[in-house]
Amino acid sequence: MKLKTIYIAGPMSGYPGLNYEAFDEAEENLRSLGWRVINPAKLGRAFEKANPQPWNRNALARLQHMELKRLKKCGAIFMLYGFSESYGATLELCEATEHKLKTYYQDDGYPPCPERNIA
C-alpha cells in the first residue's frame, strides 16, 4: 500500500498562512483521485499549537526531521507550485528521489492514484 500514499511538498515560509491553503487544496484533490495523503500542513498546525512561541532553527529542524520520516513511508511525492524556491521542499524532493518515490508536479495536474481500481 506504500505506492498509494502520496506526500505533498511545497513552499511554506514567506507565504500567507504558511501556504496551508494550497496544501489543503492539493490534499482534497488527491484524495478525490484515490490517494492516501500526507499533508505537512496538518503536522505544521499541530506543531504550532504545541509550540506557540515563535519558531527557532531547532524547532524547524525537528519539524523537518519528522516530515522526512513521514515522506519515507510514501510511494510518491506531489510538488506544489513554487517548490523550487523552498529549501524544505527541495530537500524533500532530494529525499524522494533518493528513495525512488514516484514524483508528480502540480504543473502537470493532479495524478490519478495508480492503485485506485485495484480491489
What CATH architecture would you give?
3-Layer(aba) Sandwich
Relative strand content: 5-15%
CATH class: Alpha Beta
Shape: globular
What string, H for helix and E for strand, traces the elements in order?
A: EHEHHEHE
Number of domains: 1
Give a structural overview:
The protein is an alpha/beta fold. The protein has a single domain (15-108), classed as Rossmann fold (3-Layer(aba) Sandwich), CATH 3.40.50. Helix content is 43%, strand content 13%. The chain contains four helices and four strands, in the order βαβααβαβ. A four-stranded parallel beta sheet has the order 2-1-3-4, sandwiched between helices. The chain is globular, with a radius of gyration of 14 Å. The termini are close together.
Q: What structural keywords apply?
A:
119 residues, 4-stranded parallel β-sheet, Rossmann fold, globular, 4 helices, 43% helix, alpha/beta, 13% strand, 4 strands
Topology:
Elements (H helix, E strand, L loop, with lengths): L4 E5 L10 H13 L3 E3 L1 H11 L6 H15 L4 E4 L7 H12 L3 E4 L14
Parallel strand pairs: 1-2, 1-3, 3-4
Summarize the structure.
With 119 residues, the chain is of the alpha/beta class.
